[in-house]
């Protein structure tokens, strides 16, 4: 089956926030490494969306560690992989909503 990616508004916003944070705190090299890692992970997910563990089975949400402290959450809906959020684990886990 061929899959396509769809980024939610929350995913776009959280991706941008993480890029800003990484750039301010760690500089360009770490930020570019993060971008490369996200690209690699997204390509892996497109090829094998069930590779990463299920985080919330009732909503078919999977998770993947993209960086030491950033988790990518996604959901599979038919042939669409919906990227839900890039979550920085320094945040309060009670605030994680989908």
Descriptive keywords:
98 residues, alpha+beta, YaeB-like fold, five-stranded mixed β-sheet, 32% strand
Notes on the structure:
The protein is α+β, with helices and mostly antiparallel strands. The chain has a single domain, classed as 2-Layer Sandwich (YaeB-like fold). It is 39% helix and 32% strand. The protein contains two helices and five strands; from the N terminus they run E-H-H-E-E-E-E. The protein has a five-stranded mixed beta sheet. Strand 3 (61-67) and strand 4 (70-77) form a beta hairpin. It is globular and about 40 Å long. The two termini are 26 Å apart.
Average pLDDT, rounded to a whole number, is: 94
Radius of gyration, CA atoms, in whole angstroms:
13 Å
Order of helices and strands: EHHEEEE
Q: What is the strand content? A: 25-35%
* CATH architecture assignment: 2-Layer Sandwich
Report the sheet with the most strands, covering strand number, pairing sense and barrel closure. 5 strands, mixed
Distance between the termini: 26 Å
Q: What name does the CATH topology carry? A: YaeB-like fold
CATH class: Alpha Beta
Please tell me what the overall shape is.
globular
Report the count of strand segments.
Answer: 5
Count of folded domains: 1
Q: In terms of per-residue confidence, which ranges show pLDDT below 50 for 5 or more consecutive residues?
A: none
Kindly report the spatial arrangement of strands forming the biggest sheet. 1-5-4-3-2
SS-based class:
alpha+beta
Give me the CATH superfamily.
RelE-like
